[in-house]
Each structure stands twice: as C-alpha cells, then as structure tokens.
Specification:
The chain is an alpha/beta fold and about 325 residues long. It contains 13 helices and five strands. A five-stranded parallel beta sheet has the order 2-1-3-4-5, with helices on both faces. α3 crosses α4.
Length: about 325
C-alpha cells in the first residue's frame, strides 16, 4: 500500500543551500504554477534547469514569467543565476577522487610537505564541531524517533563508499532493538528485497555525491511501497531527498583528495546515543540477552570442536 501523499516540507540543509534544497524548503509558499515549475525541475534535476526559460516553461505548462518568478522566489537574482548555481552543483556532485586529487595536488605544492596533513586535520575537526549547528536537534530527534520505533523494521543501505557507515548503524542498532538488517546487492538481489517492504519498514539510506543509481532506485521503490525513508547525505543532496521523510546532512569535503566519512560516522554515533536514551531499559535488557545467546553459542561451538564433530570431511 502506498503512503498517503504529504506536503514536501524539508529544511534547507547547511552549509550549502542547493537549488533542490531551496525548492524543498520553499515548496509550501509557492503558488500552483510555480509548483509545476518546481516539480518539473525536480523530476529531471538538474538538467531541466539548464534548458532555456521558454523550454522549461513549456515543459511545466506555464508562462515564461512564472519560471523567472520562481527563480526570484528561491532567492536568485534571475534565472541565469539559478542556472549558474545548478552548473556549480553539477560540477561538485560529479567530482571523483581523481579530480579531487588533481585539485589537491596543485594546492598542496604551496604548503611545506612536513605540515601538509595539519590543515586537513584542522578542517576535519572543525566540521565535526560544526555538526551540532548543521544537524538541528529537531531533525535529529525525528530521525532517532523513527529508528527507535520498535514497531518498525529497520533496513540500512549505503553506496560503494558509504556502505560502511550504514553497516555501522545496523550493527550497533541491532544491539539495542530487534528487526535491524543491512541491505546489500548480494543474495537476494536488491529488487527481491523490495517485495516484503511496506508501512512497517524504515529504510536508513546513506548516499553521498556521485550518487549511486541502484541505491536511489531502491529508496524510491521502497518509498512507493509505503516505507519511511531516513536519508543521510551531503550538502548537494542525493536525489533521494525528493522522497525522504527525514533528511540529515553532513559536510564530507575536506582538504584531501578523498571525501571524509568521519563526519557521517560522528553523526551515526550521536543517533545511536539518542536511540539508547529513547529505548531506555529495553536496550539494556536486549544487550544482556545478546550476551547470554553469544556465550551459549560460543560454548556449543567449542564443545563441537573438542569432540571432533566440526569441519568438513
């Protein structure tokens, strides 16, 4: 059963307010014609915004002045400024470790080699310290509530580089509450794992720039089947933001050829602490029960090994 339609009321992530983020933030204040332009932009984001005003207006079935009015409503001084912002976003989204390396190599030549790591560490420390302001308590509380809801089954999924963050949440959340799993592309394959999803499921998705098509498709399909989506993404916003119920944003860019996962992991640990507080004695009881199960299992394995019943023949 599909989820009932709901207004798109997503907060503008910081520190980078993308065009997508601005549309989601201002959506409820837009007129009907402006909303049609906004939906056309989101449906084919960001390429629709790189067309001419006339083409975008035609695709949205509105007048050209409506497109210009939307750009102004989003805080841009005209449609060309909105297009420039989209082009800058596209460039940043598509940056690979190789392009980041080339940029880093050029700038690092200006710094003494023996101190080349210090700016990166200082930058990273600053981004972790800034998490409190970038992830307001209300947004964190909503995500914690969704993940601590024992009536929901929790499924965690990430992309190539972010899978470790999703796995970390799944591993530790399983210590605190039941029905937590990690979704991957193994057996069964991703499409098969959609079949049993519905309103009793919450999908925690980690998706960073160079957003992974199969992860995006899985989240969109899960949302269409009624599952709640909690998204952890970067300031440029994964396309999953369009269907997410809760959005958390972390800054992943540091003075290094590689994006960092430290800020994401720090936020995961903050979420886990919130879940511990929300679950209360139930979390402690589950951890105690897990210790008993693990002890008994380990003892059974040792007994089997000592009697020579283990191993392949």
């Amino acid at each position: 059963m599909a989820k009932p339609s709901k207004p798109v009321t997503k907060p503008t992530p910081q520190p980078v307010a993308t065009v997508r983020a601005r549309i989601l933030h201002h959506h409820d204040r837009l007129g009907p014609a402006e909303r049609r332009v906004a939906r056309t932009l989101l449906d084919r984001y960001p390429l629709a915004g790189l067309d001419t005003v006339a083409k975008l207006a035609g695709a949205a079935d509105v007048s050209p002045p409506t497109v210009i009015r939307l750009a102004n409503r989003l805080g841009f001084k005209g449609f060309p400024v909105l297009q420039a912002a989209l082009k800058a976003e596209l460039q940043e989204q598509m940056e690979s470790p190789l392009t980041l390396y080339d940029s880093y190599a050029g700038s690092s030549q200006e710094e003494p080699a023996e101190h080349s790591t210090e700016p990166m560490l200082a930058d990273l420390a600053g981004k972790v310290s800034a998490l409190q302001g970038e992830a307001p308590a209300s947004r964190l509380d909503a995500a914690v509530h969704a993940l601590a809801d024992r009536r929901q089954r929790i499924h965690c999924i990430g992309g190539r580089s972010s899978r470790s963050v999703a796995s970390s949440l799944a591993f530790h959340l399983n210590l605190l509450r039941p029905w937590v799993s990690i979704v991957d592309g193994g057996a069964p394959p991703l499409p098969d794992q959609l079949l049993d999803l519905g309103r009793r499921d919450t999908i925690f998705v980690v998706d960073f720039r160079r957003y992974q098509p199969d992860v995006i498709s899985f989240a969109e399909a899960a949302s269409a089947r009624g599952a709640r989506i909690v998204l952890l993404t970067d300031p440029w916003l994964s396309p999953i933001a369009d269907c997410a119920d809760h959005i958390l944003v972390v800054d992943i860019a540091v003075r290094s050829p590689l994006d960092t996962l430290v800020t994401a992991q720090a936020l995961i640990e903050r979420i886990l602490l919130g879940c511990i507080e929300a679950l209360g004695d139930g979390a402690r009881l589950r951890m105690k029960q897990l210790e008993v199960v693990r002890r008994d299992f380990t003892a059974a394995v040792h007994r089997r090994e000592e009697t020579g019943l283990g191993g392949d023949r």
